[in-house]
Amino acid sequence: MTPMHRMNRRTALKGMLGGAAVTVGLPFLDCFLDSNGVALADGAKLPVCFGTWFWGLGLNPGRWEPPTAGKITALGPELQPLVAFKDKMNVFSGMKTFLDGKPNGVHFSGVQGILTGTAPRGMTADKPSVDTLISDVIGTRTRFRSLEVASAGNPSHSQSRRNGAVVNPAEISPAALYTRVFGPEFTDPNAADFKPDPAVMVRKSALSAVTEDRQSFVKHLGAADRARLDEYFTSLRSLEQQLALQLEKPAPLEACTVPGKIDETPIGTEIEIVKTNHRLFAGLLAHAMACGQTQVVNVAFADATSSLRRAGGTQTHHEFSHEEPVDAVLGYQPTLAWFFNEIMGSLAFFLTSLDGIKEGDKTLLDRTLIMTATDLGYAKLHGLENMPLMTFGSGNGRVKTGIHVIAQGEPVTRVGLTCQQVMGVPVSSWGTDSNQTSKTITEIVA
Amino acid sequence: MLLAGRFGAGTVHVLGGALVAAAALGAVSPMAAAETRSFVVSYFYDANWSDGKTDCPDGLNLSAIDFYRRDLARAGKTHDEIEAALKDFPGEGGLKQPWVPMVVTRGNGKDNVYANPTTMPDMGLKEVKGKYAYGFNLDGKGAASPNSFEDPDTHEQGVNNQLYRTMGCIRSFRGLPPPGRPSLAENLWDVLRDVIPAWVVTLDAPDGFAKDGAVTVTIDRSLDRITRDASGTAAQADMTFRIDSDPRSHNVLQGQLKGGVVMVAGGDVHMQLDPYLMPDLQMTKTHLRLAFNPDGTMRGMIGGYQPWMNLYYGLADQGHIKEYAGSIDIPAVYYSYKRNADFDPDPKTGENRQISSTYMIEAVPAFIVPAGSDKTAEAR
Amino acid sequence: MRHTSTLLRLALSAATVAFLWATPAPAADGDKPAGAETVTRRLSQEQYRQIIGDLFGPTIKVGGRFEPDIRREGLLAVGASQVSVTASGLEEYDKIARNVAAQVVSEQHRDTLIPCHPAKPNAPDDSCATQFLRDTGRMLYRRPLTDEELASRVKVANDAAVGLKDFYSGLGISLATMLESPKFLFRESIAEPDPKHSGQFRMDAYSKASQLSFFLWDSAPDPALLDAAAKGELETDSGLAKQVDRLLASPRLQGGVRAFFVDMLGFDEFQTLAKDTMIFPKFNPAVAKDAQEQTLRTINKVLVVDQADYRDIFTTPKTYLTPLLASVYAVPLVAPDGGWTPYQFKDGDPRAGIVSQVAFVALHSHPGRSSPTLRGKAVREVLLCQKVPTPPANVNFTLVQDTKNPQYKTARARLGAHATQATCAGCHKIMDPIGLGLEGFDSGGSIRTMENGVALDLSGELDGTNFTDAAGLAKAVHDDPAATSCVVNRAFAYGMGRLAARDESETINGLQKAFQDSGFKFPALLRQIATSDAFYRVAPPQQLGSVDQPSKLAAGTRIDSNNSREESAQ
Known about the structure:
The complex is a heterotrimer of chains A (446), B (380) and C (570). Chain A has 446 residues and is α/β, with parallel strands linked by helices.
């Protein structure tokens, strides 16, 4: 059996394997697994997973930060819904997105800083988001390179992008996601018998004709168009990859259970509808990861502008952020805080879905690293200071947890850089202009 | 300039084609002109009051599975036979379920018990024993009227509502909390209104609605059905309905407008309905009380005597299906209707053929046009 | 006040100018405009469906979720030149393609849609596959297939027929690969030297046919147009005019005009429009659908059927209603079969014209309440092509709240602070006074005269023209020269897939003048554009070296500190 290449993350942090490209190895063959079906026979663990979880409008400053740096002993009131995870999370406070004189693209520049490392010039991003960089490393051997979901009903709420104008569209219907992942094209890794489907072989071979179209097609394209169409051909390769995987027997995964079919649910921006759809998505994504269908997930709870609203209410979450007065007694905007509580409660549910899947003596959350992202540090004034940032899970032991890091005035990109590095992306610095950093958050690196 | 706010749909003024702004805006002038308001019925259901305790001091009637057990035991089935038949109760409720044929003939083992309710003895339906009921003093006797109630809202004495007395302690017919819609009554109408022609109500006030005076209430059936609004529960307001010219569902009642409330005391109403609820509504000594909400919708009650056999038919024709779905012991209800009927004695037998009843009406504004009209009324 | 508004108008027109011109391409010799670089546009969802319908008929269902289109410079048609296909997008295209292909070759459809039979049903048949794929390919790729292209797809069909032991399944597989090919999904413009203007380039005949067909019919060229291209007829003025007139005279023009206005009016936003059902119980999803159709029918009647003045769409009292819309408008309506019925409002009724129609006022509102600002902004940007600057990031709205009386009864009162605060007034002065005229329509599009118990004041102003209600606003829009110049610019950008280049200003001016001379007839504008040289002009193609190695992003991508990707040397 050919040994698998695995990127040693220490090597990554030191700055590289002498220029050699990262390769991810061969298909999982079940001879690799030990008798528990959990660890691989050579003692390696189940593959690491990564995810982003995005919500709009940040949090109320001063109300989320743990009281001290170092070990998390308590969380601010707006993070209270996450207290069950305080030992499995890291909190980063004080970080900001630098604009370097560029206009503040409200509800945009901040999240681009966190996810792409760059505050864009206008309202068009032009750098890939951190999850695509990571999925290029860890997402190439799964049926889906990554899965994006948006629980507030618009595929454009996704913050995941390869480059340029367009995001990777998110699923908005849990029922549709169910069909896509666990429907007729799902191969159960625990199924006793496996026969490659001849129809899939035929389809895969037919796709090569489309790849061949490339040469004659790009002949007539200008340079800008070529770059744009490059993404199409990358997508084509992903599709071929999907089919290739369907022709291989997947390794059994003990923690994999196929969830029950999900019926159509209403889609919208009303908070109860959003929470329901988010819950369904959380369960589906957890099962998808446990069943090896993907290793990268991206959740957009709502859009950056946060159009969430309450039934019968005339104002959205966003409108409250600007129009609700700061309560003289409480010292913050109470309805705004109410929405934040709902949102953080949903994040807790998402984490519970992952943590609820037992894999040996650990859980799916333990082998996952979730990075949160938001668009603002202070919604009322569109402030980009002190943007709330967190990670959850230890990424298969690569990350230490339970730590609060205060990085006053430092760029938010430190989080994205560190996540890439522990995930095995060979990068020593990340970001542009004042958001460029090479300072890994070593406190959390195992 | 634009006209009145919310009563828009109703304010279709007819005199000389001119639109009367003043009356619509509620301005009171010495020569207040006539006004018409029209509505379409969004909900129609039994007006059953409940506070959760005093209405049914003896408790509620049994669930279907329990009174089936009771009746089958009475019919001589063994415990094992009964439990075997009811094992997957209700299953899909279709005729193939083992319990169905047993239950349908539970009287004498061979005759359909819904068509022949007297094959069962009177098992004694638990009835309403409380003080309050929605409704009207139909017989004019006031508090002296036997078995009468007090209306919980108006505190009128001598309210006759024997239908409520019969049905009010069946769980699916309890109006909790008041003035809530009883669940089965609500459900029956909810299902029906998507398919039956809509009921429209027109109120004509010759002196306008701003002051007390005479009012004519016309209740008609439409050729059109209601459309549900965005919430899915109420009818969409301001839709247009063509009146069905069939005289069988055309009713004109004279009433009074007092303090903004329309009241009718007397008259006959006949409306084609549907056997799913009852084949038709035949009411005599009809009373009405209708009030307007600030948003322009209308809410009220209609009460009167109706032939109880008509009501029984609405249950019996679906037999075991309505029986198990609503836990309505149909033969027992038969006896209860018979016993509680309070009007119109049969000349031969002396038994009352009609029973006092009250229903709630919820209605939204609508445009009404005569059938065959190809000219729509003018926009306001 | 006057001074400020003049300055604002200057600022606006400057913004408009900046807004409307694209980055110029290098000028060619002489003073003729060079055009801009050719844009490759992805098919929109509607175009995809239209082509499948044209080719295979209405019984073939196109199901699945399409990758979202994006809006640039006010149009999805321009955004089409900036999108590609993401991985999940292609996954979906693949599903849709297989689904469509499976239907086409199904027993139900094969006899009508496939003009030949295989010698044996469970084996490949070269000649029948060739015939079908050649004819279908020509329609899908909008030009004849090259020999290599045809051979490659016939091979796919044959191999698949062997693998699946079924001719028709094999044919379906091949057809599906065509439907996900970039040659179908993207509209390329192939450039050739322009014999009429030395040194310049124009689209080749088939690219011209596509350019024309998508512009007027929002779909791929029909067989007659492809034949005209093949015969070289599109290279002559008279040949081109003949085809243009044929397309304009066809009933299919209505679909094309409809597609243009769906784009320009931003109706795609309806997909994510939410209204609170408790506050606006009348506004159910069927209303949203009907509302769009109402506006499109209104426009179609004025522009295409009556061939009337474009500006009449803002003031026409004639429209079409369904029973649901009638309930939103609170008018009685007897519809013969519950469907569309012509309806006419009385003279002076504020409900005349598309600005007060539900599709405009409901689309540009919040879920729970109306918004004079959103509506004013929409009038500026959608109908007058004037860009409103984005709000400053650090606005503190609590400054404007009166803490004693936080509950402002009407929008006019709530926005009053916008007019007094210096940082807000500059921009809000160009939006709010317009939208306040539409406050007689709530967020669900229903008419009202009061808000929170206070009678509404519907007076407002558009660039110096005062009005007292929505009818007055409609007239102000009608009379504003920006309205007609806007639709000219939009139509050109829609057809080109990009803004006009700076040195195409002469072309645009010519179009404006012709539009005016025609009495602002929209089909005349379309004709003017479709028969102009500018419409088919492209910049010289870039010097293209050898075709790149396909980049191997699947495994082994090095990222340097500038975050640009380098392809590994595999």
